[in-house]
Amino acid sequence: MEKKKNHQENAHQHRALIGFDDHGVPKVLVPAEKEAHTHVDENGNLYEHFHEAEFTEDYMKAVAEYKKTFPSRQDVLDRTPDPAVRQMMLNMEQIGVDTTFDRFDKQKPMCSYGLSGTCCKICNMGPCRITPKSPRGVCGADGDLIVARNLLRSAAAGVAQHGMHAREVILALKWAAQGKLDLPIIGEYKVKSMAQAFGIKTRNRSVKKIAIDLANILLEDLSRTEPDEYQTIKACAPAERQEVWKKLDILPVSAYHEVFESYHKTGCATDGDWKSIMQQFLRCGLAFTFTGVVASNIATDSLFGVGDRVTSKVNVGALQKGYVNIAVHGHLPLLVSQIVKTGLQEKYQNLAKEKGAKGIRFYGICCSGLSAMYRYAGVIPLSNAVTAELVLGTGALDLWVADVQDVFPSIMEVARCYKTTVVTTSDSARLPGAEHIAYDHHHSNIDQTQKIAERIVERAIESFEERQGVPVFIPPYEVEAEVGFSVEYVHKRFGSMQPLADAVKSGRILGIVNMVGCNNPKVLYERAIIDVADVLLKNNVLILTNGCAAFPLMKLGYCTTSAYDKTGESLKEFLQPDLPPVWHVGECIDNTRSSGIFAGVAGALGKNIYEMPYGFTSPEWGNEKGVDAALGFRLMGVNSYHCVEAQIQGSANVIHFLKEGTRETLGSVMHVDTDPVSLGNKIVEDLKAKRKALGWD
Q1: Adjacent-strand bridge partners of 513
Q2: Which residues contact 70 (CB under 8 A, 6 or more apart)?
Q3: DSSP 428
Q4: Would the pLDDT of 697 be above 90?
Q5: Helix (H) or strand (E) holding 324
Q6: What's the CA gap between 560 and 314, in Å, rounded?
Q7: I want to staple 667 with a disulfide (CB 3.0 to 4.6 A). Which of 147, 437, 510, 637 is the partner?
């Protein structure tokens, strides 16, 4: 009964879109008189469930209210924080080209069954949807099972997406060490330090041999078929967490296996228990975290180096006319690294000048740009994925290099308008009308990497010639941002993690929050990120950021010391004279750097991560990988905070499991609030509660 009382006391933390009763259950899904029941499952885990939950008509009204919170294109024009976005939206309107925000308006009203997760089209007897009239699908699946299945499939897709990213960079590391790929291993320090963590022998061995062993272990975790220890978890996860995951029976076999099993379990007439489905969901979270993120980061930093803190120009105003302008867009660093190196060579700079250009310049979209900007001089980040087409709408780009993930098909329409050549570089990602200059499906041409890069740069110069006379419109907005923060940089700057840890313990820094995620037109574009950041900084919270959420923070000056006027006094005192209040750690796989800082500070204070005043927030998350990214931190015991709901409102059980039910098992909860200021205040409130529990208030 004490557990039930605590649960009731914490119910207010779920200020959800559809309202909760004293048990944390959606009011519109469960009649008020129906009670939650305490249950002990076969593993001895205590949780509350709702056997009597019923689908009601009120649920549909609640989803309708949720849809009313979605902004319109005009709302974005009126309130987006970046004036360059506003100008480019108006420019696109004038030339008659749709943007993400136009298309979002045209999708309204969105399907309530889809938003709730209660639409099932897994088998060909459907599609089925859960309604008061039909509470079960043709096969007998109820709302709990259908919502859980859909959520698991989304998580499995995220594992596959980041897992393929991991495969590419791990293989690149191995092939470079073997000599199949003509690239140097720049991050020798990373190879050796990670080899020690994995128990790989290093004494009297070459870096290349060590790198091969390291890559093989990472690849085994990616694709193991016979159950065995997940070596990346064993080497990189806190021992306390490993015990938690073992007790919950959620340690994965391998990333491939868990994706395979997820689609197996969620197939028609296979696993009919929503709790079993959600247990597999947690396994996917671990596979995503330790292969898709941690292993990707290890391989990338080993091959290309960690990089260092640098100052970068940001936003579309940094585009310049008269140059051969090349944008790199996506997530894979291998070809991008060689394209940039090739284009900066004197030979190709001179070739561009012979064709009438001032030279060659590189720009970054999404994570390819973020990965490159602190490793290669002069790669300027411009935009996250949602507004990539606005960057194309400047007319200033000659070549757009698209690899994989977060490359919207809509860019082709804008590219055609401005005669911008689009080149795809992966067999995994094709775009109709784009030229394909890429590795083949079996990577049999991996030894042709330099030639592929040279051909792409040459194609950019040809495109520059072909595009003479195309009108260019560049909004005059650019700033500088400090980027390239990492565990290594913190040690370089302070000598160890101790000074940062001392600042957290003393209260000069209230807590540390990792702010990441993609963007979503269900909330005001980039406004949600900025509003949450403003609340956190005012309350002396240090922000780490990476991925698409980092772009507004860079573009609007949060990654420079000019943002001191947005911070509380004690945070400002700690940061002065040269540290910004938002530390940009890199691309989305660089969540590993954020968790490394979390672990380093906690370790310096003799605490576990779950005890610390930490938070994870992805205010505008929108894609499948976003489900896993939040889950990865939740599995570490760090609460997650969002302005967009997952598509789970059709199941009281799944809502409770995902948001509140892991408080006891994982030590973390998920909080959703469509009001970003309120969300920011909730994060601050929870950080203070963590401090109080530690006796630091």
Answers
A1: 543, 615
A2: 104, 108, 110, 521, 522, 523
A3: T
A4: no
A5: strand 324-329
A6: 12
A7: 637
Whole-number Å distance between alpha carbons of 233 and 631: 15
What's phi and psi for 345, nearest 5 deg?
A: -65, 145
CB atoms within 10 A of CB 432: 6
pLDDT level of residue 57 (50, 70, 90 thresholds): low
Please tell me the distance from the alpha carbon of residue 422 to that of residue 432, in angstroms, as a whole number: 10
The string of pLDDT tens digits covering residues 212-247 is 999 999 999 999 999 999 999 999 999 999 999 999
Question: pLDDT-derived band of residue 56, with 50, 70 and 90 as boundaries?
Answer: low
Query: 136-170, pLDDT tens digit by residue?
Result: 999 999 999 999 999 999 999 999 999 999 999 99
Beta-carbon contacts of 236 under 8 Å, excluding residues fewer than 6 positions away, are 197, 290, 294
Name the DSSP letter for residue 123.
S
pTM score, two decimals? 0.92
d(Cα 401, Cα 333) in Å, to the nearest integer?
12
- Are 357 and 323 spatial neighbours (Cβ–Cβ below 8 Å)? yes
3-state secondary structure 366-425: HHHHHHHHCCCCCEEEEECHHHHHHHHCCCCCCEEEECCCCCCCCHHHHHHHCCCEEEEC
- Round to whole Å and give the CA distance between 201 and 179: 21
d(Cα 229, Cα 254) in Å, to the nearest integer? 9
Structure tokens at 106: 């045209």
Distance, CA of 177 to chain centre: 29
Averaged over 478-491, what is the pLDDT?
95
Report the C-alpha gap between 616 and 633 in whole angstroms.
7
> Quick one: pLDDT at residue 133?
87
Q: Please give the order of strands across the beta sheet that includes 614-617.
A: 310-314, 479-483, 582-586, 541-546, 511-515, 614-617, 640-642, 670-672
Query: How would residue 31 be classed by pLDDT, with cut points 50, 70 and 90?
Result: very low
Give the tokens for residue 357: 């250009």
Where does 271-332 have alpha helices with state H? 274-287, 296-304
- Which of 106-110, 130-134, 373-377 is least confident? 373-377
**Does position 39 have pLDDT exceeding 90, yes or no?**
no
What pLDDT score does 58 carry? 66
Count the residues in the chain. 697
Determine phi and psi for 181, rounding to 5 degrees. Answer: -115, 125
Q: What average pLDDT score do residues 321-328 get? A: 97
Q: What are phi and psi of 265, to 5 degrees?
A: -65, -35
Q: Encode 453-504 in three state secondary structure.
A: HHHHHHHHHHHHHHCCCCCCCCCCCCEEEEECCCHHHHHHHHCCCHHHHHHH
Pairing, β 324-329 against β 360-365: parallel
Return d(Cα 364, Cα 111) in angstroms, integer.
35
Angle, helices 207-223 vs 296-304, to 10°: value is 160
For residue 80, is pLDDT > 60?
yes
What is the rounded CA–CA span in Å between residue 349 and residue 257?
47
